Amino acid sequence: MTDSIWLQDMTWEEVQETIETSSKTILLPFGSTEQHGPHLPCGTDTMVAMTLAQDAASKTGVPVAPPLWFGWSPHHMILPGTITIRPDILAEMAFDIISSLHHHGFEKFVLINGHRIVNITWLQIAGERAKRELGVKISIFDPAYMSKTLTGTLGWGAVGHAEEIEGSHMMYRYPDLVKMDRAIDNPHPKADLYSVDPSYREDTLCYVPSSPGEMKRLTLKSKGTTGEPSKATVEGGKIYHDHLVSRLVQVITQLKSKA
Ligand SMILES: [Zn+2]
């Protein structure tokens, strides 16, 4: 039996065994490949989902499916390294992944979204369809929603892009890929009746990906960053990571215990 929690490292016999030992539970990391400012790698969102999945899987004995490295990123097409896939294609792909795994016996799925907020719409569409057509259990785990109680206590600002939240997490988990000396701060502009951050307490409109014109202004100002990456620390990254892993373990444990 392999020690790996990754499905792609297992033989089919090992996969068959893990369907039973995991109470038919599996983690699905979803991310993106898109610009993350001058200081973070384009794969940041996928790497974040992978490292959370890996650590929670090791603690709970559930397997992890291969990550989907692509997300819905039209607003980041202004800079190279970005690959955007249409959300209807992504929803179909997520459904087919779940459907294939279900065909062989998996019944409980945790969709881990590293491309915070933006991937949720199509993951919800795929998740609803899977619940209705396959009768499976689906949870969507998004770090932005699952760290609302924590990020303020670390002195961090709102969810943005390649900001101190992602910067800290990457410094802790993938230090060799971070070039913090290249980072440019770009504090959140004050916008009336609008915030992306799920922990925002005021009345707000809902998120819509930015237009090319809006993104052009952002790239001229900060080379693609919204937020203050200079506030990123390894220590904060560790606290954030451990918090998310413990929450993910909670979600998996609850799901495993369900009939
Ligand atoms: Zn990101």
Averaged pLDDT, please?
97
Main beta-sheet annotation: 3 strands, parallel
Total DSSP E strands: 3
H/E element string?
Answer: HEHHEHEHHH
Give the overall shape. globular
Q: Hetero groups bound? A: zinc ion
Which bin fits the share of residues in helices?
Answer: 40-55%
Spatial sequence of strands, sheet with the most strands: 1-2-3
**What proportion of the residues form beta strands (DSSP E)?**
5-15%
Rg from alpha-carbon coordinates: 18 Å
What gap, in angstroms, lies between the N and C termini? 26 Å
The helix-and-strand class reads: mainly alpha
Q: List low-pLDDT spans.
A: none
Task: Describe what you observe in this structure.
The protein is mainly alpha-helical and 259 residues long. Helices cover 40% and strands 7% of the residues. The protein has helices spanning 12-21, 44-60, 87-103, 120-134, 164-173, 212-222, 234-257, and strands at 25-30, 108-113, 137-141. The chain has a three-stranded parallel sheet, with helices on both faces. α4 links the parallel β2 and β3 (137-141). α2 (44-60) crosses α7, α3 packs parallel to α4 and α5 crosses α7 (234-257). The longest helix has 24 residues, at 234-257. The protein is globular. The two termini are 26 Å apart. 45% of the residues are buried. The mean pLDDT is 97.
Features of the shown structure:
about 260 residues, 7 helices, binds zinc ion
Secondary structure blueprint with pairings:
Layout: H1 12-21, E1 25-30, H2 44-60, H3 87-103, E2 108-113, H4 120-134, E3 137-141, H5 164-173, H6 212-222, H7 234-257
Parallel strand pairs: 1-2, 2-3
Helix pairs in contact: 2-5, 2-7, 3-4, 5-7
This protein binds zinc ion.
Zinc ion binds at residues 36, 44-45, 166.
